[in-house]
């Protein structure tokens, strides 16, 4: 009988291990992208392979506003929309933003319309077609444009829609949402829009998450859940995104009261805004996910009248059957209250039976908090040690991430299990399992109450694991103190822990993907909470063979750290980021090599030497670094922009000075600083000829003593700066930037190695030159 009993309970533990693995797998599988559809898929469905042809055409090179490559991309999109019979139009104009300094550009938004059979409402599809400076932009945001083009083709192949579909492909999003701002400021089409679907990316793979709506989404979320073939979204990201200082084009429309669905995918963050955001690195499955949900929602909203007006929000998240669970946000307090009452019931019951004492619960509470905080602190300290001392090469990556991030996630999870489980077992032996579980649930309930008060739509993250876990622990309470538990009790425990295993692992991974490995300690804190919830099951699992399981966790940690170490070097698939700029001060005649790197590397040392100087270099404001490395450089024959002073303009009782600016050398951006003026110095910018009633022009007034204009200014297309008074005393520092290093000089140096690429932040690679202009000399 004894042998049979051991076999029986060994089988029970095997079942528990399989249950844990299966539950975690199921939770991650349900939110994973679907299988990509081939090019020969039915005409009415979305095909990632067909959409990929658009990505490959758009994301060949970097295409920033004003660049020839940008014009090429715009012509391609217009041709594709023409082929679909959508009669596209380009809406041009000057736009400005002060999100990251004052930025101005001439933008070219593309708009088209698919007319409905009996339109009562209008749904707008939105993505941006410009790229950041040092990236082809395959994911961000050629994928969004391609998804829209392929979805429109599928719509045209099927039955017509009732409502209108407006397409807006914005320009200048990377410069500060310029295209969206221009559309919202001046386009009468804004008044027609009832719903916006915006498509973004901050990585190149993973599920396409619906991460944001406008406030009052109670009527929108159920429709999104019904219309999406593979809905992935949750109200936690929606609440956190409202707090963070991040923006997409959709942010511009929210103050106008337009409801919308904002989609993005964020895995493989190290490709974001770099040369690695290339079509080869974009996941076809992710593109399929983006496109299928786009098409499903357009067909759903486009085929019926919908009323999205609401003053309340919903709690929503993915449930185990593959869809979205949702309920009113104001239910959160009620459900949290029920959970607290269940906890009190368990505490009173345990006290009456002599299982629980206040003193031991307090000891357990202190112990669990120390364990929990230690796991987070050890993770943070270990990562800083790894990043700064063991593998200092990670500091070359601007994103605060490493290519071995998945290895480190599993390494720290394994380490966390050791840090949490072993001390918890020791505390259990000192105070018994009932007092320990009471301490764990008291900690979790405190966090749940705080979430319910501060972020009620995020409370589900702890509510359902706690509620189900408490229920199971209360039901099988008698068996928890036994060495071996019956099959029925084991089944109840597994069922009660399913929501923990299904729900929380996604967020452990998602937090690292969203915040980078720098903030992996948050994921590990969540892992510690999850381990506490699972303790009744895990304690039973490892009870008879603790050394075996702890050895397994330690071995897994060692394997993962070894895997991370072997993936820590750079290669042509995992590129090192660095910075090199040739800068010329045309006032002094001095030229410099600049770098925004933290130190010199093998390649940049050829230009900067081994021990370069460092400086703020305030004359080159677009170089994004607190300190800039520099060394003398060979001079470059380059001219400052051509500034011509036109006749002063009289307007009522005031006079203004007009400056005409053109480039004598191609430039991607030009910064103007009006020296000695207040920070709210007001100037007016115009393109075309200055507005005099005979020639149309684009006008933008800004209140800042410095701004950057993005785009080239050939003699045929100048920029006019209208100063607020007639003066001869003003000095203007003009700094120009070009994204390419000077070929005439670079032929004397080795090119960047295949395992290197420009840093993706600020102006980090190219040619810069500056000159101070005195108005009295013009």
Notable traits:
778 residues, alpha+beta, 15-stranded mixed sheet, 6-stranded antiparallel sheet, 21 helices
Short description:
42% of the residues lie in helices and 20% in strands.
Describe the protein's architecture and organization.
- It is a single chain.
- The protein has 778 residues and is of the alpha+beta class.
- 42% of the residues lie in helices and 20% in strands.
- It contains 21 helices and 25 strands.
- The chain has a 15-stranded mixed β-sheet that branches.
- The protein is globular.
- It starts with a helix and ends with a strand.
How are the secondary structure elements laid out?
Elements: H1 2-30, H2 48-58, H3 68-83, E1 89-97, E2 103-114, E3 122-128, H4 138-157, E4 164-170, H5 178-186, E5 193-199, E6 209-213, H6 220-227, H7 235-243, H8 249-253, E7 259-264, H9 284-302, E8 314-318, E9 324-328, H10 331-352, H11 358-390, H12 405-431, H13 433-454, H14 460-475, H15 477-480, H16 487-515, H17 520-533, H18 535-542, H19 546-566, E10 576-578, E11 580-585, E12 590-595, H20 605-608, E13 613-615, E14 628-632, E15 642-645, E16 649-651, E17 654-662, E18 669-675, E19 682-688, E20 697-703, E21 706-710, E22 719-723, E23 731-738, H21 743-746, E24 756-758, E25 765-774
Parallel strand pairs: 2-21, 3-4, 3-5, 5-7, 10-24, 11-25
Antiparallel strand pairs: 1-2, 2-4, 6-7, 8-9, 11-12, 12-14, 13-14, 15-17, 16-17, 17-22, 18-21, 18-23, 19-20, 19-22, 23-25
